[in-house]
Every structure is written in C-alpha cells, then in structure tokens.
Specification:
Blueprint: H1 2-14, H2 21-30, E1 32-36, E2 41-43, E3 51-57, E4 60-66, E5 69-76, E6 81-82, H3 85-90, E7 97-100, E8 104-110, H4 111-120, H5 122-148, H6 151-161, H7 163-168, H8 171-177, H9 182-191
Antiparallel strand pairs: 1-8, 2-7, 3-6, 3-8, 4-5, 4-7
Helix pairs in contact: 1-2, 4-5, 8-9
C-alpha cells in the first residue's frame, strides 16, 4: 500500500492538485498496479477505456488502425498519463489501443471509482479536470505542430522536449508519431547537427 501512496502523491504533485491526507489515502486505495511485458495490451481497440493509466516505468504506445496500417497516436513514458479520452469520458468503445513498447508498470485509475470519489469531494473534481485539461492541451499542441511545422522542425522539437521518445521508441513508431515516413525520419536525423539543437 505504501507504493500506491507514493504513486498517488506523485500523480497529484505532477498535476499540481492538493488532496487532504484522508483523500490521498482514498485515492491510493483505488489505484490498480499492472506489471506488463513488452507487447502486452492495456487496452484493445473496441473495448471501453475503463482506466486512465499513470506510467511508473516503461514506454507506452497509443495507436489506431487506418486500413491495414497501425498509426502511432501518442508515446508516453515515466510520469505521463495515458488515456483514451473519448472512450473514458463517453463510455464508448475505443478506436485507440494501448500497448507496451517496453516492459513496465502502469497504475490504472478506474473510471467508476474515481467518479465516486469526485461525488464526495471537490478535490477529486479538480484532479479530473487537471488530467483532462493537460490531455487536451497535449492533443492540441500536437495537432498544431503537425499542421504548422516541417518534418525537421517536428523532429527537433520532439528531440528537445521529449528525447525519451526518440531514444527509446522503434524508428517506425517515432516516424508515425511525427507523421512522416521512416525514410523521411532517417533523412532528417542524418541531416541534424548539434547546431540544430
């Protein structure tokens, strides 16, 4: 239980939300740790997303299928939250899957238990809002980057702001995440110098 308390405190610290000691204990109690191997799914497309996942350790991929292709939506690592936001909030089957790119440990925050806590304390409403707000901002920022930046600019931004993605994820996933072909990513990487950073 002490590990779950540590994770609960880390989540709240990360989202700048203060919980009373009693509410921190209640939050820790609902966390569900999952130790998953590389390639294991936390969510398969077509399932309802019943959990937000906090990544304690590992690299986690969110993807969707477009025809026969798998497209990388998001890559998360330690300290990030993974959520299929539409499915989680609307309680509809997810078009997004969640799979481990590395073995790791994720903590599930269950939808029903979280909302039960929110009915009893406004502190949990603030936590839900903070998580939802950051998720929406990240989605908007990624959409803006894709719309307005060149392939090289997208790569350099990711290298500066989120080097773990570039260092740890397979090349084809990084390319898909940056919405370019693996060949384009290889060219961009090869042409990047220290002066670019």
């Amino acid at each position: 239980m002490e590990k779950k308390r540590d994770v609960a405190r880390e989540i709240c610290r990360s989202y700048n939300v203060a919980l009373s000691p009693e509410n921190m204990e209640r939050f820790a109690e609902i966390l569900l740790p999952r130790k998953l191997l590389r390639g294991a799914h936390a969510l398969t497309e077509g399932e309802v997303c019943d959990y937000m996942y906090y990544v304690e350790r590992g690299l986690v991929l969110q993807y969707y299928r477009k025809g026969k292709m798998s497209v990388t939506e998001h890559i998360a690592h330690e300290g990030d939250m993974v959520i299929c936001i539409e499915s989680f909030f609307l309680r509809e089957p997810s078009k997004i899957g969640i799979v481990m790119l590395e073995p790791g440990i994720i903590y599930g925050i269950p939808h029903d238990e979280l909302y039960e806590l929110a009915r009893s304390s406004f502190e949990f409403c603030k936590l839900i809002f903070a998580i939802e707000q950051r998720s929406l901002i990240i989605s908007q920022q990624k959409a803006d980057v894709i719309r307005f930046e060149s392939a090289k600019e997208r790569y350099l931004r990711t290298l500066r702001e989120n080097p773990d993605i570039v260092r740890r994820a397979p090349l084809h996933n990084v390319a898909s995440y940056l919405q370019m072909t693996p060949e384009t990513l290889s060219r961009v990487r090869g042409a990047t110098t220290e002066d670019d950073l």
